[in-house]
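Per reviewer request, we include the raw input and output of the structure prediction for the construct analysed in the revised manuscript.
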Amino acid sequence: MSNAPKGHQWKTLDTDLHRISRVEQAATYAARPMVGFGIALAFIVLAALVASFFLGHSPSNYVVIAAATFGAYMAVNIGANDVANNMGPAVGAKALSMGGAILIAAICESAGALLAGGDVVSTISKGIIDPSSVADAQVFIWAMMAALISSALWVNLATWVGAPVSTTHSVVGGVMGAGIAAAGLSAVNWSSMSLIAASWVISPVLGGAIAAAFLALIKAQILYKEDKIAASRRWVPILIGVMAGVFATYLSLKGLQKIIQIDMGSALLIGAVLGCVSYAISRPVIHRASEGLENRNKSVKVLFGLPLVFSAALLSFAHGANDVANAVGPLAAIVHASEFGGFEAKIPIPMWVMVIGAFGISFGLFLFGPKLIRMVGSQITKLNPMRAYCVALSAAITVIVASWFGLPVSSTHIAVGGVFGVGFYREWHMERRLRAPNARVGQIKRIAVEERRRRKLVRRSHFMTIIAAWVITVPAAATVSALIFLVLTLLVN
């Protein structure tokens, strides 16, 4: 019988139980990532079962079933990495919660993929490989399989590192690497590759410049005016009209191929009409919303919140319609080649293949998207609704300009470039105001020169990581794809 008082015994027991509860909490926290991996794995297995249901269990279909598995894996990775570019700014600006952003993006991405995703897809991504060099159906199937696996692995690695990369460029690199392994360097269309390489610079610079220009306009015409509310009533409806017109043009060009083919002139006309209608509708709405607001910048942010949510949703819809082909394009090509013993320049996408792509993107976003959404939205530079609005608007405008000139730009590079552009413009603008001879201490907080050099509004470590990931995406995916193609051909021969 212990001589210790009972109270001390219970105190010891309480302490032990508290320790046990801490262990349980730690185990739950550690196991949380495994839940996501488990759900993703279940979806990938389900995709393989769906493929086997539609194709049957004959040995000739096993390759297609394997391709469906990797197609689902690629779709999950696209959702985890690429969708952050659309939702990150809205979340970083606190116009949307993380849960709200994921819900809206999942719905809009799936709707875009299923309702407006293309009926056909190019079998040789971006025309970078000469079709005659992979005319043999078996060689073509293994080349597409290698491209699919390598691009999915690269996007997965980039997501793990925390770098938003272009899934389009990952697929391009995969196709190029497999093509070189199959038929040599002469199989590559180097003029197409040079355009893609140029887009590494053009996409982010153009996106950043347009985003910075709109932010400069908002600062000059609204934020630095004496009566900010009156300026907002005049300019916010104009900016909403511009946004509506730009997105109508963008969706006409990029998101409605399945419904109707629209040329650039018709798309611009649709955008102009809807832009004017949106301006007329939003003017009285903004006037009512601004009544009673204080004459300060915080009030202006409120007026940009709802337009920003709509722009994020529209970007997600267009992304789902446009980029689902990155997940299902190689898969659809493999399905077609195995069924008909060859390939064509453009092939139809079976609905079950499109469903795998659409739901895979949504699963990837839901399970793994928050990491990159936080990166794009708040860890590169600080965003508010006005800055995030400029990023979304620049993404749509840049795609339209690029389509006009036939440049193969990346939506990822444009959106992240817009975030960089806004951040670097703020740095430049702050430095200019600090150096202005008529700047009053009461208006601008004076900071020592050494401290100003240390304080940066764009986090340089993320900037260098992302730029490095962009530069090596195509060669890395190509190298991995070539190795996978050689391994696959050795295994089957």
